[in-house]
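[audit] Reproducing an earlier prediction to check determinism. Same input, same settings, fresh worker. If the tokens differ from the archived copy the diff job will pick it up downstream; this log only records the rerun itself.
[audit] input (171 residues):
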Amino acid sequence: MHEEPEFLTIDYIDSAPWITLLNDRFGIPTESFESYRWYQPNRKLISLLNTSMQPPRRPEPISMGLPFIRINMKYPKLTTGGTLFVGPLATKNVVELTEEQVNSYYSRAMYIPLTEEQTTRCTTMGYIILSFQGIILGQGFYRPKSEEEDANFDSFYPKAFANHAQRSALG
């Protein structure tokens, strides 16, 4: 006789405030998250799990789902994986970079200048999603034009992956 496996009971969190945050900042449609459940494995992170996921009780999972939002900061921030996952759905606070800016981004540069044309979808100071030729690269922190400086952003490219070479990241 075949026994049914025991599944781990997961305490999901209310996704509404997080979906609202992503919709307000990036214009990501709320229905984009209908196939996912939101799980908070610790006080620093929220992960996305597919609604069909049923992890076994044994062996106990080390981690589950896509690490999605870091919440242990003043302003919660999408993880790099989260940005790559939902970035194509964003309609606000998205910036298309030039090749020179991509190289600066991959080198984790600060105060990378932006043209007025590049900032047409930016709303306010804060996180932006960066792309090159329509491909999502990651996130940066946007500062709009002020009396003191032109619009610019800081690279949030992961430190472990940074391009420290004296050559182009694009070849």
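[audit] rerun output stored. Observation attached for the diff report: The chain has two domains: 16-88, 93-161.
[audit] end
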